[in-house]
Amino acid sequence: MIRNVISTLTMVLVLLLLAMVVMDMPQFGSADRPQDNVLSERMIWQVVEDTGALNAISAIILDYRAYDTLGEATVLFVSIMATIAALTVGAKRPPRGGGMC
To answer: How far apart are CA 6 and CA 100, in angstroms?
Structure first.
């Protein structure tokens, strides 16, 4: 009973947090909030000078967004491992020893 209440409250809290974040986002394509556009413009026009890389896309991914990329890879790895663990919980395994009796 208490687990259901805690789970429901957690889901409602996350839903409210997500709704607040979405409501704070600027309209797509609007230039009303210059603080949202300054970083992307700097990345586009000064990436080669800042990083010394020849490929702008690789420079953005590996220099500017390295921690973000590492975090995404970690989340992907953990989700794959959790899926494998969840799918193999009730799986029957062959007996150990593998030899014929």
So the answer is: 51
Distance CA 16, CA 24 (A): 12
The residue written with tokens 């230039």 in the block is: 31
pLDDT surpasses 70 at 7: yes
User: pLDDT tens digits, residue range 20-57?
Assistant: 999 988 777 666 666 666 777 777 788 888 888 888 88
- Compute the half-sphere exposure of residue 19: CA atoms within 13 Å on the CB side of its CA: 6
**Secondary structure (DSSP) of 18-87:** HHHHHHHSPPTT--S-GGGTHHHHHHHHHHHHHH--S-HHHHIIIIISHHHHHHHHHHHHHHHHHHHHHH
Nearest to 43 by CA among 58, 29, 27: 58
Could you tell me the two tokens for 14?
Answer: 């996350």
